[in-house]
Amino acid sequence: MPCSSAQKGLITRIQKYATKDGPGIRSTVFMKGCPLGCLWCANPEAISSTPEILVHAQRCTSCGKCMEKCPQGAIFLEEGKYRIDRSLCTSCGRCMEVCAANVYEKTGILYTIDALVDELKKDKVFYDASGGGVTFSGGEPLMHPEFIRCAAEKLKENQIHVALETAGYAQWEVFESLLGVIDLVLLDIKFFDPQAHKKYTGISNKIILDNAQKLSAAHMPLVLRFIYIPGINDGKDLMDRIAFATKLNNVKQIDILKYHKLGIGKYNKLGKKYLLEDISEPEDTDLQEAIDFAKQQGLTVTVGG
Ligand code: SF4
Ligand code: SF4
User: Fold this and answer.
1) What is the pLDDT of residue 305?
2) Which ligand is closest to the CA of 94, given by its number?
3) Residue 35: alpha-carbon gap to chain centroid
4) Which of 84, 90, 94, 244 is deepest in the core (most CB within 10 A)?
């Protein structure tokens, strides 16, 4: 399908000078919308595919103007605090307009392809000097395949390296449509065990593992990313994921991502509950056995968070 400059994509943010989302210095584009519901998600604002309002409640001066202004009657007082009934809120932003204390923040901005590419091109000098480029992440970028394909085509016209950071949950045809414009896929494999995958993310991993094999057969350079959550997908499951990586042909690197809780504050701002509060963040020493095993298999390993 031909690309239209009027096409728009919903983006939560563009992270400039990113160094952990592929080689070199990069701009990471976080698309909004994801079919998975990982309990540990550090970007919960990127799960819903519609704009949302984050509430910085500690800034509120209790003036009451937002409640008067809300056309949906979605703002109410509870124990002296102004709250949003998310089932009524349409993310119209009227509360933001009247709140002098900047309590409300909208997440999810529509970008045209031209506006996005113009923004990303501003840092080309950094990409060129460092061997970097642009990474599409999310949320799940594969929920926006046409937008990504058209934006990536324009980036390639400007000799900009393009990576895709994905959980891999899409029909193979979606991946296939992007093969010609993507230089590298960073594929998150969260569990090897299908039951555990379903329990903690809401979906089976069969299509994800199938897609990894098809990407391998298509000679797409891959970085496999394995989150490590103590007591949930450590031990055998991590070893099984590493063993799976050795069966693919074109794995440039595996990244072991240590579980962290940096996203908890965003859950509060979205009025959501974080369910893994009792899980501890791992120590580097917890990962040593897995790192040694991966290196013995000839894999290049990084550890991040
Ligand atoms: S307008 Fe802002 S400061 Fe005033 S009550 Fe609403 S959230 Fe609080
Ligand atoms: S975004 Fe609109 S609907 Fe939602 S709480 Fe604010 S004013 Fe009400």
Assistant:
1) 66
2) 2
3) 11
4) 84
Nearest CA to ligand 2 atom 7: 70
Pairing state between β 8-18 and 26-31 = antiparallel
Strands (E), the chain: 8-18, 26-31, 52-55, 75-78, 81-84, 104-107, 109-112, 133-137, 161-166, 184-188, 222-228, 251-258, 301-304
pLDDT 10s digits, 213-240 = 999 999 999 999 999 999 999 889 999 9
Ligand 1 pocket mutation pick from 62, 84, 102 by most atoms within 8 angstroms of CB: 62
Ligand 2 pocket test, pick from 60, 69, 75 with the greatest ligand atom count within 8 Å of Cβ, gives: 75
* Residue that is written with structure tokens 């045209």 in the block: 112
Q: What's the fold here for domain 52-107?
A: Alpha-Beta Plaits (3.30.70)
Q: Which residues contact 19 (CB under 8 A, 6 or more apart)?
A: 25, 26
Contacts of 101 (CB under 8 A, 6+ apart): 59, 60, 61, 63
Pick the CATH number of 8-48+109-303 from 3.20.20.70, 1.10.1370.40, 3.90.1720.10, 1.20.5.110: 3.20.20.70
